[in-house]
Amino acid sequence: MSPSENAPSDSSPDIENIFLTGATGFIGAHILVSILSNANARVICLVRGGSISEATQKITANLDRHQLTMDWSRVSIVLGDLSQPLFGMNNIDYDDLKQKIDLIIHAGADVSLFREYEQLQAVNMDGLGRVLELANGERHIPVTHLSSYSVFNEVSYREDQAVFEEPLRGTEPIFGNGYAKSKWMAEFMCEQAHAAGAPVKILRLPYTSGAASTGTCNPNGYMDLILKAVLLTSLAPQLDFSLTCLPVDICADLVVRISLQSQGNPYIFHLTPFAPIPWSEICEAASNYVHNMKYLPALEWYQHIKKCALTHRELFSVVALLAQDPSLMQFQSNIYRLRFNTSNLTPYLGRVTAFPQGRSAYLRRYMESVAKI
Questions:
Q1: Which of 118, 154, 283, 299 gives the lowest tally of CB atoms within 10 Å of its CB?
Q2: Is 344 inside a domain boundary?
């Protein structure tokens, strides 16, 4: 990413230790590597596990999965769980952690799209509460919270409406989706903390697609799994939507760059700088890897995928996911119709290009990665 002349300056020399949650996830792995590439700070990763050795293996396996490498000399691990008070640590270790860290990047979350709100609360809300508690003390530790454009799936937002990088509206949101509600409530907590003087930044992420540099995808991603089924069966659902997405490596670099910048206003950012990709264009890229692609109504497509799973074990995870939304109603959500203002983000973009070799070339690499899931 090349900064523009008017772009904010980078890392503060006061940031020596960055506390990162979610390092074993798709986005978190790329953020970890980006920190080491773009800052001189050490990274302390919160990882669930019975031992440091087990936790180290989790991070290593995750990096390997996404074709990432890093220098471990500036990385350390603390064992902990977002769903537990003090992350499950004893008071001495917790206080030691609090004294060390200068910045928190909170990427840890339960991203299960179809779980009930109550099932997500322990990690997505209570976990964030513990992160904010860790940041609050004699010195206020800056926090970057990774939110989601799913917060706009609240019923008061209309299709084709422009949404801005500003606080959420309303106090009693109505959602048909537990995940979206959990992200809305978590973001509302951050807004309250910011109003009380805490140095909190909120980054609303779109769908994180395969890396721009390699195409490497998320083996557990909703869209990635649907595309896997398309490639395996030469069948695609008939859908009318455009996907607002951001390649995960570009997403990670933006997260790090914004996080390292001095606190203040603005504090809410939409990481949605690029034009949405129509489903028809995505399917066209997939058709380069299959023969005689056929299109079926969504529910009929799902029924065919279920039958194919009887002889293709690779489809089990896809069927399990789609069973909760067999008609693919997810793609009628607000987030596929809204327009996202990015005024606050623009100074951080510089000359960054989403698809350096063109969108078609990017989609081809992305499909190659999906085919290997």
A1: 118
A2: yes
